[in-house]
From TrEMBL, chain A:
Summary of subunit composition and partner proteins: Heterotetramer composed of 2 PDSS1/DPS1 and 2 PDSS2/DLP1 subunits.
Enzyme nomenclature, EC number: 2.5.1.91
Co-factor requirement: Mg(2+)
GO MF term list: all-trans-decaprenyl-diphosphate synthase activity; metal ion binding
Feature: compositional bias, Polar residues: 31-41
Predominant subcellular localization, coarse grouping: mitochondrion
Function as written in the Swiss-Prot or TrEMBL entry: Heterotetrameric enzyme that catalyzes the condensation of farnesyl diphosphate (FPP), which acts as a primer, and isopentenyl diphosphate (IPP) to produce prenyl diphosphates of varying chain lengths and participates in the determination of the side chain of ubiquinone. Supplies nona and decaprenyl diphosphate, the precursors for the side chain of the isoprenoid quinones ubiquinone-9 (Q9)and ubiquinone-10 (Q10) respectively. The enzyme adds isopentenyl diphosphate molecules sequentially to farnesyl diphosphate with trans stereochemistry.
Keyword Lipid metabolism belongs to the record: yes
Origin species: Dinothrombium tinctorium
GO cellular component: heterotetrameric polyprenyl diphosphate synthase complex
Name this protein carries in UniProt: All trans-polyprenyl-diphosphate synthase PDSS1
Domain of life of the source: Eukaryota
SUPFAM superfamilies (alphabetical): Terpenoid synthases (SSF48576)
UniProtKB/TrEMBL annotation, chain B:
GO cellular component, one term: transferase complex
Name of protein: Decaprenyl-diphosphate synthase subunit 2-like protein
Gene Ontology biological process terms in this record: isoprenoid biosynthetic process; pheromone biosynthetic process; ubiquinone biosynthetic process
Signal peptide limits: none
InterPro entries: Isoprenoid_synthase_dom_sf, Polyprenyl_synt
Record key words, sorted: Transferase
Molecular-function annotations in GO: prenyltransferase activity
Family stated for the protein in its record: Belongs to the FPP/GGPP synthase family.
PANTHER family to which the protein is assigned, alphabetical: ALL TRANS-POLYPRENYL-DIPHOSPHATE SYNTHASE PDSS2, GERANYLGERANYL PYROPHOSPHATE SYNTHASE
Length: 369, 347
């Protein structure tokens, strides 16, 4: 689920890159004009988040592939498979923007430090390793428009290659020789796997379900973003308050993203989303729209408990969500988290990077796929 | 071994216990019963991890504790005071010993993942159960590795993180060596055995022993002695293990391929030193599939030069291991380490 954030942004990214760098056509980012952020700065529409991080992330995938070098050609091939430049590098983009915004705040120079770039690489590596493992768990056979690793090389090698990517990522972090950075990031893998475990069970107690769901969304989606934001803020030399602000920006943006993702699962068609509509229901997952809908339609509770496993459950739950205000509530909650993210970075000194962070929150809310 | 356990004192760290008692692992345990009746490797690994806690499973961690005690702590180390209360081994070194065990367990679990055909997954009950076994294997292995990552972060020593991460990477490389290797021992290069087994066995022990002394505040040259000890001890032990099936009569079992590993030291050294071809043990059936005659292999190797050469190999590595620790100050822990080495050498 979390992985679809970057999927959704790919089109936008692509559009901006081609329009600015190749055709020089006056196409402006679609979201920057149709949904101007409501606060901070009037110049927002001139800021292009993708352009701002372009120099820093230009060689991201090439540099990651270099780190994955080994004398075992097949291991290297599998480990590098998704670092083919087709990814959107959404997480590295957030991390780089936070880093630059705080570098500017602290030193009045936004330039990215090498150590911060390493954290940006590591966040993409952790994310990718978790995708490789998720695809084995969910028996997914495609990813980013190509066959998944498990389809091409089998489940065993997929898992081993995922572990290998993580081992290289931790070596890179260790070589920064900053034990505080390692300590800050020490929880993220545990959160990812605990989130996966949480997704496997349903809470008996209806009153606990929603907090369980938000908690799961934090662990599976937001934790990696939040802690890597904190790590680069530490490296920028920002004080504890600003480190916490960076963490909260990542945390709230991540949760907002997950809420929108769960919403789109109901409203987007298969063609737009690249996966069947109501895919979460089919996997037995009760996400925010269903949980909100169950307040109006208590008969959903029993279906939630049996994970929509009886014939007709998926269809009936889908109908109930559509007839309730579950989708509106979900959108509202996402908006609340996005606003909260912005509130936390409001003390940052004004800079194009800060404006880009504001735009990212808007884009997260307004994406259509 | 149990004498050695007395020397390092009662383990006062509950790190791995905490993991075993966590919601996640009890969740897995609950689901494992679904795997009964399947032959998913996770069942076997789970048994080894839970019922067999006092055999070889914990040797890796025990060696980390023993080498910690044997070398002692540098009085200038931040943990020096702490270690004096804890049988001469610091709390961080005890954590490291458990992290070492958890890395090994995670690897055992992950390498037991089966390659299942995706299109078969929904067809039969047994395929669904096997897929479920895979899912549990991924998650429980990931959970252990995530706990390792967390534990390493709490050690607050980036050098140790780097060494242990290297060990995890080597482990994966070693598994890929095995996954992609040829089945013809005759084609193998001379140092292949060392490389293969350093990656899959030696690196974890070498890097964990070095890490233990890094945590003790010792200089690089002393750390490297611990590294050499871990590496050579692990290699000698591996060679010793590989020789065992040839010291007893042939045993027929469905598991022949893992007992009579074609890339084991006795087989490789046999072909290397005799130049003999092992073509006679391979038979190709009408479908073009190759079968190995393990009984014939056993008979050739038991009578051939490979056993003697493997003994020499064990001697070489045990000598190096003993050499590496001879100047460590703590007599009792050093003796315990030497006794373990001699046990491998003289059997």
């Amino acid at each position: 689920m979390l992985q679809d954030l970057s999927k959704a942004l790919r089109l936008n990214c692509h559009l901006v890159h081609t329009s600015s760098s190749r055709h020089q056509s006056p196409i402006v980012h679609p979201l920057s004009t149709s949904h101007p952020p409501q606060s901070h700065n009037n110049d927002n529409k001139k800021v292009n988040p993708f352009k701002l991080v372009e120099n820093d992330l230009n060689n991201l995938y090439k540099d990651i592939r270099k780190e994955l070098w080994t004398e075992r050609p097949e291991l290297e091939e599998i480990a590098s498979y998704y670092f083919d430049g087709q990814g959107k590098a959404f997480r590295p983009m957030i991390v780089v923007l936070i880093a630059r915004a705080l570098n500017f705040h602290v030193n009045r120079v936004p330039d990215l430090k090498d150590s911060q770039k390493t954290v940006a690489m590591v966040t993409e590596m952790i994310h990718t390793a978790s995708l490789v493992h998720d695809d084995v768990i969910d028996t997914a056979d495609t990813r980013r428009g190509k066959p998944s690793v498990n389809v091409l090389w089998g489940q065993k090698k997929a898992i081993l290659a995922g572990d290998y990517i993580l081992s290289r990522a931790s070596q890179m972090l260790a070589r920064l020789r900053n034990d505080e950075v390692i300590f800050v990031l020490s929880q993220v893998l545990l959160d990812l796997v605990q989130g996966e475990f949480m997704q496997m069970g349903s809470k008996e107690d209806e009153s606990e379900r929603f907090s369980h769901y938000i908690h799961k969304s934090f662990k599976k989606t937001a934790s990696l973003i939040a802690y890597t934001c904190k790590a680069v803020s530490l490296l920028s030399g920002a004080n504890k308050n600003f480190q916490e602000a960076a963490f909260q920006y990542g945390r709230n943006l991540g949760i907002a993203f997950q809420l929108v993702d769960d919403l789109l699962d109901f409203v987007s068609s298969q063609a737009e989303l690249g996966k069947p509509a109501a895919a979460d229901l089919k996997l037995g997952l009760a996400t925010a729209p269903v949980l909100f809908a169950s307040e109006k339609f208590p008969e959903l509770n029993i279906m939630i408990m049996r994970r929509f496993s009886e014939p007709g459950d998926v269809e009936r739950a889908y109908e109930a969500v559509m007839k309730s205000d579950g989708l509106d509530h979900t959108r509202l909650l996402a908006r609340k988290h996005a606003d909260e993210a912005l509130r936390h970075i409001s003390p940052f000194a004004d800079s194009p990077e800060k404006q880009a962070l504001v735009m990212l929150a808007e884009m997260t809310l307004n994406r259509k796929k | 071994m149990s004498d050695a356990e007395k020397i390092v004192g009662y383990s006062t760290s509950y790190f791995s216990l905490r993991c075993l008692l966590s919601d996640e692992i009890s969740n897995v345990a609950l689901h494992l019963s679904k795997l009964n009746g399947t032959n998913h490797p996770l069942l076997e690994t789970a048994k080894r991890l839970t019922y067999n806690g006092h055999s070889v499973m914990q040797t890796r961690g025990l060696l980390v504790l023993l080498i910690s005690k044997a070398a002692g702590l540098n009085p200038s180390a931040s943990d020096y005071h702490d270690s004096r209360k804890l049988a001469g081994i610091s709390q961080r070194q005890r954590f490291l010993a458990e992290i070492t065990e958890m890395i090994y367990s995670a690897h055992l679990i992950h390498r037991g993942i089966l390659n299942l055909q995706p299109h078969l997954l929904l067809h039969s009950k047994i395929d669904q159960d096997l897929h479920f076994g895979n899912k549990m294997s991924v998650l429980s292995g990931d959970f252990l590795l995530a706990s390792v990552w967390k534990g390493l972060g709490e050690l607050r020593d980036t050098k140790v993180v780097e060494l242990m991460a290297t060990a995890i990477g080597d482990f994966m490389e070693g598994q890929f060596v095995i996954e992609t290797e040829s089945v013809n021992p005759e084609e193998i290069k001379a140092n292949y055995w060392e490389e293969r087994n350093f990656l899959r066995i030696g690196s974890l022990q070498a890097n964990s022993c070095q890490s233990a002394l890094a945590l003790a505040g010792h200089d690089e040259d002393i750390q490297l002695k611990a590294y050499q000890f871990g590496k050579h001890f692990a290699l000698s032990w591996q060679a010793f293990t590989e020789m065992q099936p040839y010291n007893r009569p042939f045993m027929h079992s469905s598991n022949n391929a893992s007992i009579y590993d074609l890339m084991s030291a006795p087989v490789l050294l046999h072909t290397e030193h005799t130049g003999d071809s092992l073509a006679c043990i391979r038979k190709t059936d009408s479908e073009g599939k190759t079968h190995i005659d393990y009984r014939k292999l056993h008979s050739i190797i038991s009578k051939g030069k490979g056993i003697e050469k493997t003994r020499e190999l064990i001697d070489r590595h045990t000598t190096e291991a003993l050499d590496a620790i001879k100047q460590f100050p703590a007599i009792d822990a050093c003796n315990a380490l030497m006794n373990i080495v001699f046990a491998v050498r003289e059997q």
